[in-house]
Structures are given as structure tokens and as C-alpha cells.
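pasting for ref
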Amino acid sequence: MIGVLLINLGTPDAPHTPEVRRYLRQFLMDPRVIDIHPVARWLLVQGIIVPFRAPKSAKAYQKIWGAQGSPLRSHTLQLAALVQAQLGDEYRVEVGMRYGSPSIPEALEKLATAGVKEIRAFPLYPQYAASSTGTAEDVVLKFIRGKKNFPDLRFIPPFFDHEGFIRSHMEIARPLIDTFRPDYFLFSFHGLPERHILKEDTSKKHCLQSEDCCERLVPANGMCYRAHCFQTAKAIAKGLNFSEADYSIAFQSRLGRTPWIQPFTDLLLKELPQKGKKRLVVFCPSFVADCLETLEEIGIRGRGDFLSAGGEDLLLIPSLNSHPTWVHTVSQMVRG
């Protein structure tokens, strides 16, 4: 039997300040996420970010919390159940969250106890980033190093341009777009500090050195998150027959005063209506499951900003969640 570990970011256990505070501490104290001196990170997270951000984030989570709890957790668990059904009894599928529960070590322990001969770890992050894919891989490898006779391990690589991943987005979006009749499209990806991008530049002279540095993949930016995002957006746009004038690419969720990759989604949402773009469709292809960043940040706050700036309507394209084509794609990638 082959074990499958589907890894996602994670979520608080409840939409209340104590649970959100605990989640944020685990998340932001990760040295892959805030990659500064440990003492400075502790002071920043424990003394500034968490005390002020936890109550605000709790209120945001309350706006999207469903009957089954966190959307990210419920969608990921549903995906796992459907992938399990498609793969059959020769596979054992578990979910592990990098932060919160069910945790990655808990899921790995279940797989090992079940007697699997191999584990295929699948970080559900389309574009590679050290603060997402990298830290998930770290936790898996750390757990294995402490074990004897552990099953063989294989990581499934980033899938930012995988044909099934792109097709899944197209199949979800096309009927919604036909009904909505937009005049512009925005691809909004989660942001990263610029220093994270520069660390992945193998040449040390390519990334963020020109406006078109991410337009194509070259050896220097082969592991660049921003370049991966551009490839995802361009592939979806091509599949849906968008021209280059039909869409923009931007980055959301920035935190703090350090420089983050641009352009910024929140600013574009306020600028587009002034440029005559009144009916906007937004894709969020760095997330495979709807979560706080899609449903609240874009679907509620972002929509409000767009309408307040003069927009007529904003349509958020749902994440892949457990769409049948996505379930099939995940199963295919697991089988290899």
C-alpha cells in the first residue's frame, strides 16, 4: 500500500481570538516565513503582530466560517476523501496541515502505522516558495530523521503549469465568465517579501532586476515564486483566450514595512475602476482551496474596495476545492 500525504497551510481551530492567536504564533514564528534573526522575530511576532492582528483576524474568520468549520480544512478533507475513493484500496490518503491540525507529524504517524511501503508527500502549493513548499518539506524530513525503518519518501513537485491544474481553473471559470460578462480580469496571488525572491535567484543578477524578469522561465528563476505565478496566469489566460490587454497579475496579503513583490492587489482594485474597468473577474490561483485570503480578503474586503472606487461588480472565481477535474488531476499526479 502506498501512503499519500496531502499538505496544506492550515487554519485556526476556531474563529476566536485565543485560537487565532495560537495559530498565528505557530505560523509566524516559522523561520521560513519570517526569515530574520530569531530574537527579532520573537519580538516582532509576540510583541507586535499577534497582539494586534489576532482580534482582527478572528473577526475576519467569523465572516467565512461555515457549518463544517474552516473552509480551508473542510475543502482539503473533502478533496482527500474523493482522491482516496478514486485511488482505491492500494493507497491510504491522509491530510497534514503545516500549522494547526491535523498536523503533518500526526498524518505521517498514521501512514507509518498503517504499514505503507512508500509515502508520496504532496504539498498543495502550485508555485514553489520556501515559506510554503519549503517549510512543509522541512517538517516531513525532520519527522523522518527521527525514525527507524521509515517508508520510502517521494515529494510531488510544484505544479504551477500542470495541464490538469490549468484545465481545472478553466472549467470552473468559463461558465461563470460567460454569465458575468466582465470587462477585465485580475490574477491575484499571495505575496512574498522581495528578499524571499532574491534568495532563489541562482545567478544573483536576474530576479527583480527588470520589469519583465518573470515573463519566462530561465535557469536563474527556475525556482522563483513570482515567475511561477506569471506562468500560471499566462497559461490560464491563454486557455480562456484572454489577450494581454485583458488582464493584470498582482499580489495580495502583504505584511509589515519590508518591500514585497508588486504590483499590489489592494491598490489595483482601487485603480481599475478609474481606468474604465467596471466588471472585474478575480482568480486566486496560488490557493487550491478557498480560505481567508480568497473568501474574505478578496471576496468581501476586496470587492468592497472595488465597488467603493466606482466598480459595478466583482466576481471571485472559486478555488479548485474538490472540483472533479482537480480530484482527477491530484490522483494522476499521485500515481505518477
